[in-house]
Write a structure and sequence with these properties.
By secondary structure, this protein is α+β, with helices and mostly antiparallel strands. Helices cover about 45% and strands about 10% of the residues.
Length: about 375
Amino acid sequence: MKSLFRNITFSIVAILLLIPFFGCYNAQTRYARATSVIIDSILQPTVFYPKTFDEQGRLYYYVKVFGVLKFFLSEKPAQDVNTLFWDYYQAIKTSSSKEHFNQNIQNLISSVHPDIRSMLQKDISTVDWANDTVYFDNTTAQYIATIEYCFRQDEKKSFYVKQNQLGIVEIIPPKASSFINDTFPKEALRLWTMADYWNYINYFWVHKKLMDHNWDSVLYVNVPNFVNAQNRREYILAVYRFIAYTDDTHVYFRNSDTTIAGHYIPNVRLTKIDNQFIVKKLRTNRTLIPSDTMLHVGDVIHTVNGIELSTYYDSLKHYFSASNHGTKVKKVAGYLLASFSPTNEVIISRNEIKDTLKLLFCHYKDYDYYEYD
């Protein structure tokens, strides 16, 4: 009996160890599907249902409908789906009732699929999120389910998606528009940027269900941040906060980093130990300004311009994406002493003695030049 148990145990372990080395495409596909079922069953639920009929919920579902229309479409539509999103935005946002909302959604679907009624299939299951009777009627739910069903049944390729031999997915961008590169785009375009990215992650990112937050609820919570942004900075911060939910360490924002905390910095790099922030090293041994010699390795930084660093850290961390705690700390720490002003006041402890220092910070590019050198 013990021998049988050992043999069974050995076989199971051997199979688990062999899984990463399977070269057969079919075996990989079966394994991926099985893994997906397991993940679905033990991790967060995949669908979030708003509790009340309101603007936030309408725009939440509008993003989802947009994803179906864009990625379950095999032929070039009479009208670009991206453009239709902008055109219908205001009508969807201001729909005064469930009936009005559904009529607008149906009109949008008919613009992409004029033959939607002839496409309708009997006895097919509705898409899970379209079962929300607070927002959708039976006709809209059938439209959405039919689009997905017909696309999957015919095993067609999406018109808006290209995939190379390595499996890398590329989304075809919309036609060039005069406002596509605006530094602060209009409201409809702001939400479209969110919709395009959310659906890209939703349909194509294999790690979606391993994130700390449910991707549906992430969409719902972040809709107001994009809609209500009052200026370019608020919009960029909304983008940063939204993408940080992916928990992907590879997400960096090199060109607009100063939007978060300013472009003036001291000549030090910090690290976080427990709940303290300590000078880990100097950026450069060169002395660009006298203040460069005022902070030492080992100094504990308590506040900058009256703000407790522990409190500041908690607010900044929401804008940075990382797959583990250590990487998150490393990313955030680089911004804790950044400032929009060159003149700053810092409270430190050195050899357990507190001191207040008035420091001049340099532009980060001044230090970057020597640090990279």
